[in-house]
Amino acid sequence: MSEPTGQAIVRIPLSIFIIAFNEAHRIGKTIDAVKDLADDIVVIDSGSTDGTPMVARKHGARVIHRDWHGYGHQKRYAESQCKHEWLFNLDADEVVTPELESEISGMFDGDKPLLPGAYLVRICDVMPGESAPRLFAYAHRYVRLYHRNAGSYRPSTVHDTVQVNRGFKVKRLKGKIHHRSAVNLSAQIAKFNNYTDALVEDMQRRHVARPAWRLFLEFPAAFFKAYVMRRYFLRGAYGHASAMSYAFFRYLRLAKHIEARRKHESGRESPDFSPCSKC
Length: 279
Hints:
Layout: E1 12-20, H1 27-32, E2 38-45, H2 52-58, E3 62-65, H3 71-81, E4 86-91, E5 94-96, H4 98-107, E6 118-125, E7 139-147, E8 151-153, E9 162-164, E10 170-179, H5 185-205, H6 215-229, H7 236-265
Parallel strand pairs: 1-2, 1-4, 2-3, 6-10
Antiparallel strand pairs: 4-7, 5-10, 6-7, 8-9
Helix pairs in contact: 5-7, 6-7
């Protein structure tokens, strides 16, 4: 949304926060899509080496360094650094559509103040080679816009979901966020490998145990979930490849978990799961 000549942009009382690690190649586009929406855009960087902080500042964000403590913890810290009561979270690989920007801006117009609450936003995957999500493509819905009093991110190292407090309403927004997670298959598989280490460490910490027989079903079940239920078949050859990599991710998580559990039960030392700086 560009600024009309001679007319000032009126930004709403909203803080937007982003956690980032080595996202210089795409965080600028993420910030540009919302910089006319809010006067407080906060980027929490966990030690990028590719110039992410410089790019974020260049595009108008306020950058704060914090070592990586896990997804939920990092986002809770970001919440504490925001100056407004209404919060909107984005990942560095997400871009708000003009329709969503207009919808959020319109919520703050009018005489009546917006009551504290939480709003689900559709997150639509955009795969390499696509300019926009395919028609009828699968989308997730997550709480991304919320009032401080209505909730906060769960303090988890591997999950990042907003826990809405009792008594507050959760509504849906119509607009979308375009999510460009996969740069390519190599980067996707590398991310999955790191993330499964973090997931297994979390499962060990919570004393979660999964039966070994699931290994025989995990891959085909996960492939069916992605390719059919999440409609990756609409994405052609790349959709098939992405469904395969998702199934591998699910299988790898389970295989690593069973391996770690058996080593522990046999009395041998568990493998050293070093936390990733940003999976």
